[in-house]
Design a protein that fits this description.
The strands form 3 sheets. This protein has a two-stranded antiparallel ribbon with strand order 1-2. It has a two-stranded antiparallel ribbon with strand order 3-4. The protein has helices at about 5-15, 55-60, 85-90, 105-115, 120-130, and strands at about 30-35, 50-55, 65-70, 75-80, 90-95, 100. By secondary structure, the protein is of the alpha+beta class. It is globular. It has one domain.
């Protein structure tokens, strides 16, 4: 079943038009997608509490995964849940504002699984940093 236009608008507004994983801003050349935190293929639903805004790269990398491996401990951890957790509790920005650093096991597993520091995710923010628009406050 398709997600209604009203739900899509609510998800966009709630996320302030940013990817809720890598924090990328919606710009003309990059659309953001409504993503299921807990995938429908695993029994997730279309309730607002299971929907978030994600860029194509994060959504594609996450796919239907719900866990990732913490590279520090090699343990399997749940991925970051933007509906139940606070981004700054699990991540921080590198000093130059370009890389997402996982500061918890959930954060580190999410950085790896979603490839939050993939080249395209770093290229656009370089310009945003220069313009004073990134990292988000």
């Amino acid at each position: 079943m398709a997600i209604s236009k009203q739900k899509r608008q609510t998800v966009n507004d709630r996320a302030r038009k940013r990817c809720e994983y890598c924090q990328a801003q919606r710009i003309l050349i990059m659309d953001l997608e409504v993503e299921h935190v807990y995938p429908t293929s695993r029994g997730g639903n279309d309730d607002l509490e299971n929907l978030c805004l994600a860029c194509f790269g994060c959504n594609n990398s996450k796919s239907d995964f719900v866990t990732g491996v913490d590279p520090l401990t090699n343990e399997v951890n749940p991925l970051y849940n933007p509906r139940a957790q606070i981004w700054t509790d699990h991540f921080m920005w590198s000093a130059d504002g370009l890389n997402v650093i996982g500061i918890t096991s959930i954060g580190r597993a999410t950085v790896i699984r979603l490839k939050l520091n993939r080249e395209v995710a770093i290229t656009a923010p370089e310009y945003w940093v220069q313009a004073g628009l990134h990292p988000p406050k």
